[in-house]
Specification:
Number of domains: 2
Structural class: alpha/beta
Shape: globular
CATH class of the largest domain: Alpha Beta
Radius of gyration: 23 Å
Helix content: 25-40%
Number of helices: 9
Protein name: Putative flavoprotein involved in K+ transport
Largest sheet: 5 strands, parallel
GO molecular function, one term: monooxygenase activity
Keywords: Oxidoreductase
Amino acid sequence: MDAIVIGAGQAGLAMSRCLTRRGVGHVVLERGRVGQRWRRERWDSFTLLSPNWQTRLPEGAYTGPDPDGFMTGREVVAMLDDYAAHTGADVREGVTVRAVDPDADGWRVRTDRGDLVAPAVVVATGDLDVPAVPVVAADLPPHVVQLHTRDYRRPGALPPGGVLVVGAGPSGQQIAGELARAGRTVHLAVGRHKCLPRRYRGHDTYWWMDRMGTLTRTRESLPDPSATRTPNAVLTGGTRDLDLHRLVAEGVVPHGRLVGVRGTVAAFDDTLPAMVAEAEDNAVRFRAKVDGFVARAGLDVPAEPARLPRPAPWAAEAGRELDLGGITSVVWATGFRRDFSWVHAPVLDDAGEPVQHRGVTAAGGLYFLGLKWLHHRSSSFLDGVGADAEYLADEVAAASYSSWRTRAASRVRWSRSGTLAATPAASA
């Protein structure tokens, strides 16, 4: 076996297909089932932010009847199941990886079903790893039910009463809107976020980003590397814009950032006007960028009048405190952090982030795939992970070809009982 791929989401399955085409023997290990996070860590009404036509994996582009629609979470799972079956991916489901360690024959992957050894390991566990919940969560009153967006499913699953949603990214705003439409009293703690129009000048925003090369822009092309850490743009599936103006009209009560809890009172800062203005400016800049592209390319598309940032008097009037007596639930829409502490190799920086170039690390044979801005802006997207997988597959195949005569190949069998077991290495 030449390689072990860890994770059977879009990144792992794309990697598997690319390795198979190059004749690189491998297995894919998955702690749950194919597309586990899509399957178990999305709310019921979840849809992709990108249109169906932009669902493009290696040899697996969308060909259905609604290219401009938006897949639900269930449809994404079905698509990944079909893709795994179509490509013949050798996925070992129900295998939890506990550690990746250096080994004389490459890398030893320790799992709850036994150890495997291969010259190459591709960590394709994705970008959404461990829920990031701020320390202030420990100060909330005991009567408040707390859950991360990973565990939120539907309004009816929360206890009766008011809800505080913390975080105004796409997940936070989508969930806040859903709760308000369900008749809940909803408060939203707002931090930095970016607005984008759902459609502009006759086309979806992702259509424009695709045409303008925005999604294929590389890390190296950015004047400021920290730009890769900016918040995700707020969008939702469909044709309507999603922003704080819409949520306030639907009854959501906005606040600034949550900065503390004392007893039964939550405190917020006074940054809401600045957060709203910054988000609006992003939408204005995007429209201007599209206008410039249309003029340069001479495209025949509908014109739209210029739109300036909208006034938001409610932002200046936002309450700085909230009595939590009527709040029974807090939904943490505060994103995720990555935990690669189980990868035992000197390839992580002080923040625990992989040090890599296009997924290749300084530890020979160890690769990462599916991370945000791994190489392109779309590296973590269904549409973008394929290009990175193609590049890494070439790297793995080249390393495998150059070293196969000298390495002691560890052979692995899957026993009839369903356990993994390593057989003695073959003689060179």
